[in-house]
Amino acid sequence: MDEYDSASINKGCFVHKPEKVKSKKSGGNEILPLVKEHVESLWSEIETKIKDIEMKIYIETFVNGIVNFINDSFQPSLQKIQEIPAAVLVMGVNMPDHSHIFNLLEKHLHLNDIYSTVILESKKCTSVPNMLQVILFEIHKKYKEFFKLSEDLPKKQEYGFAKLYEYYCSIQVASPKKKAKNILDKTQHAPKPIVLLIQDVESFNPEILQKLIYLCKIYSGKLPIVLIFGMASSMLTLHSILPPKAICCLGLETFHSVPATKYLTRIIEEVIISPDLPFKFGPKMFRLIVDSVLYHDFSVSNLTYMLKFSMIEHLYGKTYASLCCHESEIEEKVNQLSPKCLQALKELPSLKTMRDDFNTSDDILGRSKPQPLFGKCTQRQHFW
Predict the structure, then answer these.
(1) Nearest-angstrom CA–CA distance, 294 and 92
(2) Nearest to residue 252, comparing CAs of 55, 84, 74?
(3) Biggest CA-to-CA distance, the chain
(4) Where are the beta strands (DSSP E) in the chain?
(5) Where are the domains of the chain?
């Protein structure tokens, strides 16, 4: 018999009691609770600055141009031209913020007394009846919100441009009891246009777009309709999607959104390295944010989220995070710190250089001598 025939394998299971895990000392750097109010106030200041920059850039590049285009489209000299006023907004191929841009554009149109606005998305407009339902529902919603109207919507089977025309005419001649006086004057003397914002043209079914254009053409003499096409690529894409018969119905004008590089430059100059804001990013985080925007997604919204998460991650769990404030508030913030917070602050590597320069260990952050901290703000302003 071969020696391998009598071989056997024995399995054994040996249990060992695990050793006790010794708790590691933090070395003086205590995990302190989040100063929620301070972080929220700091981020609110940064977010407000970003939104102001965003609105200024969009207004400078295309928003004012589109508003003027809409207002000029129904001048008496142009009403004889049997074309549907249509603007093409080119927003960029790799920018995922198209919906955000259209929401800002709609908000700005409302500020200019253009309330009949409807944002059409391909996922909600899978057929012509669905699209007509969205148009009538959104216009009814806007009139109810801005004009305080109480008219009921027609039945679902009656959705169409004929009902839209009847509803629009009823709004124009509504009784003063149903509207405020200033709104009545606006609608009676200057009927506002109906603006259809088609957000993602490339994703729409071409047949649905064609039927929408033909319907708008039929009612162009009755309803003041303006179309705004949101394009990711270029004007040539619209010509490839729609046939010449549909293109001939449109009076086209092209507008371009701001490039991501220009927006990022403004954010860097006025937020990230601005001496007016106390929170600053280190070189590694700064490079990560820039690379992520320029070489990944070109997203304005994601840039805002990265700034927010970076700030929260840096300030989380540190009571002395309240020192990230304006120079005029530093002395007050230092006097509010507890002895434990001061000790934890002195343990930070970033303050070792300052402690060596002042040749002291305790007085640099003492309550009676917070003046050396002011020098840090001066250094920060000169650096940036």
Answers:
(1) 13
(2) 84
(3) 112
(4) 84-90, 117-120, 194-198, 225-231, 250-256
(5) 31-42+261-360, 81-172+190-258
Given the structure tokens 């009814």, which residue do they identify?
A: 140
Q: What 3 state SS string does 129-181 have?
A: HHHHHHHHHHHHHHHHHHHCCCCCCCCHHHCCHHHHHHHHHHHHCCCHHHCCH
Neighbour-count burial for 206-230, b at 16+ CB within 10 Å, e otherwise: eebbbbbbebbbebbeebbbbbbbb
Q: Which fold has domain 81-172+190-258?
A: Rossmann fold (3.40.50)
Tokens for 259, please give them: 């490039």
Q: How confident is the chain (384 residues) per 10-residue block, as mean pLDDT?
A: 55 68 50 65 89 86 89 69 86 73 89 88 88 87 74 64 79 49 43 86 91 90 90 86 91 86 85 85 83 77 85 77 80 79 76 63 47 47 42
Q: Retrieve residue 143's tokens.
A: 């009139």
